[in-house]
Design brief:
The protein is of the alpha/beta class. The chain has helices at residues 19-29, 62-71, 104-125, 156-179, 213-226, and strands at residues 9-14, 34-41, 52-56, 79-82, 135-140, 183-189, 192-193, 210-211, 234-237. Helices cover 33% and strands 18% of the residues. Strand 5, helix 4 (156-179) and strand 6 (183-189) form a beta-alpha-beta unit. 41% of the residues are buried.
Length: 245
């Protein structure tokens, strides 16, 4: 599956206990080209393979992120996937329909998980990417984070946090290209996936466009496998098409 990466690749999946994150772990565990998977999340479910090493990571705590990076050991990583994200949380946090729904508390929570957390993951994990060979840092974004594609409005905090994440990826890709030219940093849109994040809104989606976590993760791994050096800093959908910022 990941034939474009180094054989016996080492992978880290952040948000590994979530719907898409767990699907990534399970698919990578079945990939003969993958030697080790570091599954990082606040909860640690049972994992399907001896290849998988579970580590605690809290995206809202930089000390936790730094410790998790150290826990991956001295080995270099070929792929880091940030599969975490937040859109809603009970009645306390819901995507805004209008500007009247904006609150500082909601903005802080959404940005902490969708933007600041991935930024700190990049800070501590990018130095661990393998040199002199293709290595990928991929963060799950969302098409609604595209400024040029925004025609409906609403969901301000979520849209803003994903737009900021896209800018982070673009900015760090420039810096990383000077340090490790074969590193590729991308933001990825997984489509609408049948997970807890999308569940309240799945009824509005054509069933043929609602992906299972496994299908979405499989498509995204195909995109990652096909990435070239000049794709770094880009924003790609599950089908490999480039999304305008």
């Amino acid at each position: 599956m990941l034939l474009s990466l180094q054989s016996n690749s080492n992978v880290a999946v952040i948000g590994a206990s979530g719907g898409i994150g767990r699907a990534f772990v399970e698919l990578l565990a079945a990939d003969s080209n993958v030697a080790t998977i570091h599954a990082l999340s606040r909860s640690q479910p049972a994992w399907p393979s001896a290849k998988v090493q579970g580590h605690y990571l809290d995206l809202t705590d930089e000390r936790s992120i730094e410790a998790a990076a150290a826990a991956t050991g001295d080995e270099r990583l070929d792929l880091v996937i940030v599969a975490s994200g937040i859109l809603h949380r009970g009645k306390e946090l819901q995507p805004e329909k209008t500007m009247r729904g904006l609150t500082a508390e909601a903005l802080e929570e959404v940005f902490a998980v969708n933007t600041i957390g991935p930024a700190l993951v990049a800070k501590h994990f990018l130095p661990r990417l393998r040199s002199h060979h293709k290595a990928v840092f991929a963060a799950l974004s969302a098409r609604v984070g595209s400024i040029s594609d925004n025609r409906l409005g609403g969901w301000a905090s979520y849209r803003m946090s994903k737009s900021a994440l896209n800018m982070l990826i673009r900015t760090l890709s420039i810096e990383q290209s000077r340090l490790r030219p074969q590193s590729i940093l991308v933001a990825l849109h997984p489509g609408t996936v049948d997970t807890l994040l999308s569940k309240p809104f799945a009824g509005r989606v054509d069933p043929s466009r609602l992906f299972s976590p496994a299908d979405s993760a499989r498509q995204l791994l195909q995109v990652i496998n096909g990435l070239q050096e000049d794709d770094t800093g880009g924003f790609f959908a599950y089908d490999g098409s480039r999304i305008d910022f």
